[in-house]
Design goal:
alpha/beta; eight-stranded mixed sheet; 9 helices; 18 strands; 27% helix; binds flavin-adenine dinucleotide
């Protein structure tokens, strides 16, 4: 069923009783050509592009809970492509371009909003670093601008300019950056993948990976054994535990990251604002009016999808330091997600030492914006057995080869990335 203004009117006239389910609830078959573990945004996008762009049939996505129950439905919805290093820049720029056409592609309203990202500058050295990153982005065909203090004040008059410990000196702006409704991305990819024959199987936890003669033959699940020719992992925060089922010891740690939403307010913040000096804080306003914000990792490894009060306190303190008016706004909800942190803060889309086992992970806290390119490049890898050109440096063995992609220059410390 195609969604359109006409279909909305037609369904309204019949009391909205005839909408078809957006995807089926199939029982697992005994065998698939490709099984993707993880029904987050990346797993579903991979299934969609495999079916559409690489004519792969007989695909299943196995999700241990409901689709979007992981980080895909927990993030702060920011998309951007302000990356500088070869290996990251072309990849994230491809992703932003795919976001720009995604709603038409999926025939689904994902509320893509290119409202612009304003990354505040608080020191001369930070301005130099931002200018360098911006120049690299311009040379790579992306968009970037530097604003001075007065231009920022005109754009965002409610920030703390005059009494801040870290005064605002200017900002780096990417106008094409913005937000996308995260649940809608999951549902849009699920619906589009399902319409191309992909079986999306929820409440189906993979508990073991069966191998014979060095190759994966299938997975043990809470719904029984399911065979496959190729197995692809897209399990984000659970990447290291699922990888271990195939004997892989991956360079990934799992850490908790929290996010928050306030009570609904009248329109106030019409950009994504990032504050990255002294503290770390990012904020935008949802279409419902809630302020959506977050900060750093809690700082310890965890598989709990909830965090601790110390991070709540420091997030609120950073927020109020930047926007003093926030002190009078009530926070409604807080939640956590499990982040698959790599040693260099960049992701992995690669084959593994097990020939028919493929890995997509290590997204740290930037994987939502990567969703379309991640799905596309992972599908390319699975179908053709070779990396897509823009993902060719996102390799698993880059750490042992001494070729990390440390965008932030933070060294091999997953909790700092
Ligand atoms: C609080 C927070 C804020 C964030 N903000 C941003 C942001 O603003 N911008 C941005 O770009 N990124 C952001 N991120 C990161 C982003 O959400 C993730 O990097 C991205 O969603 C990860 O990919 P995914 O969607 O496929 O992961 P998930 O949605 O986590 O998908 C993995 C799925 O695998 C399933 N799974 C795990 N183990 C098994 C198993 N054994 N069997 C079957 N299924 C299994 C899980 O249940 C889960 O549904 C944020 C994350 C959090 C938590």
């Amino acid at each position: 069923m195609r969604y359109s203004a006409f279909s909305i009117v037609k369904q309204a006239l019949s009391g909205n009783r005839n909408w078809a389910p957006a995807w089926r609830e199939p029982q697992p078959k005994a065998h698939y050509d490709v099984i993707i573990v993880g029904g987050g945004a990346h797993g579903l996008a991979t299934a969609y592009y495999l079916a559409k762009e690489f004519s792969t049939a007989n695909i299943a996505v196995l999700e241990k809970s409901y689709i979007g129950s992981g980080n895909a439905g927990r993030n702060t919805t920011i998309i951007r492509s302000n990356y500088m290093l070869p290996g990251n820049s072309a990849f994230y720029e491809l992703s932003l371009k795919l976001w720009e056409g995604l709603e038409r592609e999926l025939n689904y309203n994902a509320m893509v909003s290119q409202r612009g990202m304003v990354y505040l500058i608080h020191s001369d050295s930070q301005r130099d670093a931002m200018a360098r990153a911006g120049n690299a982005m311009l040379m790579n065909g992306s968009d970037a601008e530097l604003l001075d203090r007065e231009q920022v004040r005109r754009l965002l008059p409610y920030l703390n300019y005059d009494h801040a410990r870290f005064p605002i000196l200017g900002a780096f702006v990417q106008r094409r950056a913005g937000t996308v409704r995260h649940d809608a991305v999951v549902w849009g990819y699920a619906r589009a993948a399902d319409s191309r024959g992909v079986d999306i199987i929820q409440d189906c936890e993979v508990t073991a990976i069966r191998r014979q003669d060095g190759l994966v033959t299938g997975v043990e699940t809470s719904k029984g054994f399911i065979g496959c020719n190729k197995l692809a992992l897209a399990t984000a925060g659970n990447t290291s535990t699922v990888g271990r089922m195939a004997g892989l010891d991956l360079p990934i740690e799992s850490h908790v990251l929290q996010a928050f939403v306030s009570e609904g307010l009248k329109p106030l913040i019409d950009h994504v604002i990032i504050y990255g000096t002294g503290g770390h804080f990012y904020i935008s306003q949802s279409d419902k009016g809630g302020l959506v914000f977050g900060a750093d990792l809690d700082g310890y490894s965890s598989y709990a999808q909830r965090g601790n009060l110390a991070a709540v306190e420091s997030t609120m303190a950073d927020g109020v330091a930047l926007i003093p008016g926030l002190s009078r706004v009530r926070a409604l909800r807080a939640w956590g997600g499990i982040m698959d942190m790599t040693m260099d803060g960049s992701p992995i889309i690669d084959r593994t030492p097990v020939d028919n086992l493929y890995l997509n992970g290590g997204w740290c806290y930037g994987g939502f914006k990567a969703t379309p390119a991640s799905g596309f490049c992972f599908a390319h890898l699975i179908a053709r057995n070779e990396p897509h050109p823009v993902a060719r440096l996102l390799r698993l063995d880059r750490f042992e080869r001494g070729f990390p992609l440390d965008e932030g220059g933070k060294g091999p410390q997953p909790n700092l990335q």
